[in-house]
Design brief:
The structure is a single chain. It is built from 16 helices and 22 strands. Strand 5 and strand 6 form a beta hairpin. The protein folds into two domains: about 250 residues, Glutamine Phosphoribosylpyrophosphate, subunit 1, domain 1; about 180 residues, Rossmann fold (3-Layer(aba) Sandwich), CATH 3.40.50. The two termini are about 20 Å apart. The protein has a seven-stranded antiparallel β-sheet with strand order 3-2-4-1-10-9-11. A six-stranded antiparallel β-sheet has the order 5-6-7-8-12-13. It has a five-stranded parallel β-sheet with strand order 17-16-20-21-22, sandwiched between helices. The protein is α+β, with helices and mostly antiparallel strands.
Length: about 500
């Protein structure tokens, strides 16, 4: 997962892009970048957090009333500075582009671009491949003749050649802002508009999550539809078109872990979904017949579900684990060693909440098991009598090829159809409970009944794009190993 943001208006946008990146920093900690345009492209990007890359003096040269920005969490690529987004090409017209997702046919596409399009890629990032498909698809004729139609035709050619998941934002010099979402809509994208009360001037923005638009004051928000493209010209006119037939399969793991609870994705409240997940977990826990003294969330993303679960069960809820807020999200840290080293620095138990008690720990998921195992160890060291563990999602067993850092089958603790009892033994818990898949999907779809299905590939192995081969999985896995600098 990454985070994208694009803004076009009648005022300098660099400051807004910077603030917006902070709102979606949780979507990527590896790198960040901003590209603006006035009479030339002005780009600043690098590795690290947004606050590490940008100082106040770095924003001053980023002039222009149109710009895009990105926070990166590596999936394709080795995570070097050269893979930071946005990417830029000077032909035709000058285009900068950033995306969230993962191009599943990246390896073949890269070869095809070199052989047939004679385009040399300078990085290992799939966003550069996307840019080099989009750019030559644009006409070199007169832009005054229906530029929207010309842009939408170019997006259509992207949809034909590029497979996988991608939500894209791009700026075209002296033309405007473009955004599009792949026909499966796996990754989110939200459009917002803000109108100046005094002048009536409109500013438009596109972001990965609604929270970025909220913070920047955009009130008229709509989801970009799967297979849809939008174009906003320099005068602020919005053009939109359904370029490809939609086959909507939004990623359900956005609601489990990635998105902020104050965001809406595809009209679904992340917060309300997590509440419903907790209530469904309570129903499942009742079936076990096990009584506990308290329910303790593993901060941060499981808090909402844990509280809802405790309220429905009538069990005490306590904040027994204190998080160091200056440690990043361990799930999206590159490399297993980095994750494991950060867990103990990240969490510290309140011993009074554990000593001589039977506790139920609630986390958003159990992926590799390393975090869960160390948290169980913390609970026992703090004096817990019994330690149970509940996951707000089903058992993860299959690699995600659409942009989540779990691209090799061997890393899953629930691999090879291990049971909950097997996993409990592996992490040292007295019992493990998973939320059933149908309950998870019901919790999300209750917020928007127009979405009949979600991408559940990491749980089921059924990939909605239908083009995922074992060779493709192996290639992506190798890319992830390079990015992490370690074997699982």
């Amino acid at each position: 997962m990454c985070g994208i943001l694009g803004i076009i208006g009648n005022h300098p946008v660099a400051g807004e892009l910077y603030e917006g990146l902070h709102a979606i920093q949780h979507r990527g900690q590896d790198a960040a970048g901003i590209a603006t345009y006035d009479t030339k492209f002005r780009i600043k990007k690098g590795t690290g957090l947004v606050s590490d890359i940008f100082e106040p003096e770095d924003l001053e040269p980023l002039t222009g009333n149109i710009g895009i920005a990105h926070v990166r969490y590596p999936t394709i690529g080795v995570g070097d500075a050269e893979d930071a987004q946005p990417f830029y090409t000077n032909s035709p017209y000058g285009i900068a582009l950033a995306h969230n997702g993962n191009v599943t046919n990246y390896a073949d596409l890269r070869k095809d671009l070199a052989t047939n399009d004679l385009r040399q890629l300078n990085s290992c990032c799939d966003a550069e491949a996307l840019l080099n498909v989009f750019a030559p698809s644009l006409p070199t004729g007169d832009w005054t003749k229906s530029p929207a139609d010309q842009i939408f035709e170019a997006v259509g050619q992207v949809f034909e050649r590029v497979k996988g998941s991608y939500s894209v934002v791009a700026l075209i010099a002296n033309v405007g802002l473009v955004a599009f979402r792949d026909p499966f809509g796996i990754k989110p994208a939200i459009i917002g508009m803000r109108e100046d009360e005094a002048t009536g001037e409109q500013t438009w923005a596109v972001a990965s999550e609604s929270v970025a638009l909220d913070i920047l004051g955009y009130r008229n928000k709509q989801d970009l539809r799967p297979g849809e493209a939008i174009y906003i010209d320099l005068s602020g006119r919005l053009f939109r078109k359904q370029v490809a037939e939609p086959n909507h399969h939004p990623c359900v793991f956005e609601f489990v872990y990635f998105a902020r609870p104050d965001s809406f994705l595809d009209k679904i409240s992340v917060y309300k979904t997590r509440q419903r997940m907790g209530e469904a977990l309570a129903d499942e826990w009742k079936k076990t017949g096990i009584e506990v003294d308290s329910i303790i969330p593993v901060p941060e993303s499981s808090r909402t579900s844990a509280l809802a679960m405790a309220q429905k069960l009538g069990v005490k809820y306590t904040e027994g684990l204190v998080k160091n807020r200056y440690i990043g999200r361990t799930f999206i840290m590159p490399g297993q060693k980095n994750r494991e080293a950060s867990i103990r620095r990240k969490l510290n138990p309140i011993r009074l909440d554990f000593k001589d008690k039977d506790v139920l720990l609630v986390d958003d998921s159990i992926v590799r098991g390393s975090t869960s195992r160390k948290i169980v160890e913390l609970a026992r060291e703090a004096g817990a009598n019994k330690v149970y563990f509940a996951s707000c999602s089903p058992a993860l067993r299959h690699p995600c090829v659409y942009g989540i850092d779990m691209a090799t089958t061997n890393e899953f603790i629930a691999k090879n159809d291990r049971t909950a009892e097997d996993v409990a033994k592996a992490i040292g818990a007295d019992a493990v409970l998973y939320l059933p898949l149908d309950a998870l999907n019901a919790a999300a779809s209750a917020g928007n009944r127009e979405i009949p299905r979600f991408c559940n590939a990491c749980f089921t192995g059924n990939y909605p794009t239908g083009d995922v081969t074992q060779e493709m999985r192996d290639t992506i896995a190798q890319e992830r190993i390079l990015a992490q600098g370690t074997m699982f």
